[in-house]
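Crash report, auto-generated. Payload:
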Amino acid sequence: KAGVTQTPRYLIKTRGQQVTLSCSPISGHRSVSWYQQTPGQGLQFLFEYFSETQRNKGNFPGRFSGRQFSNSRSEMNVSTLELGDSALYLCASSLPGHQNTEAFFGQGTRLTVV
Amino acid sequence: AQSVTQLDSQVPVFEEAPVELRCNYSSSVSVYLFWYVQYPNQGLQLLLKYLSGSTLVKGINGFEAEFNKSQTSFHLRKPSVHISDTAEYFCAVKKETSGSRLTFGEGTQLTVNP
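Recovered output after restart:
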């Protein structure tokens, strides 16, 4: 069974540009969550999508957005990049339902903003 | 809101020694508890989880954790560590009714020395 796949693994962008990251969840998983990991702030929740709808949102500016497609694949977009957006972005997928609480993580996309 | 405190940012130990990584949490509602491990340039891998039932939870790679409701703690232990256990460990909580959103602690870097 394939795991969570994130593409690309590494990305270098310039301040002011925008970027799109992709996440393919484990087959059958309909919930996809995104996290930002930085040395200073640790792991912070960005948002969660379930059945193409945003179910939860963290405390990030509107420059951070996401969406989910009918096949459960998800993308997140960051517009007008800032140096502080440099981070490891992790995607996690899980089965729906509160008892199925285990989240499976991808290897992440390392974004560097210069 | 929930919060998680990992009491040690770095824990150095010698190979074959026992180790305990401490985690306290705060929540006004019932939560599920998790420990994840992250190796360099990788995503997060679930070590173990507490959903309900027995307060002693066994996980992969010989790790175990004990849920203590009165002390709101979920400490991770291993009786004998290996060099390969060197990694960063994250404690996380999830509200029973919050979808898949995880709140993480700051992480504990475990370094196993020969």
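Post-recovery validation: Chain B has a mean pLDDT of 94.
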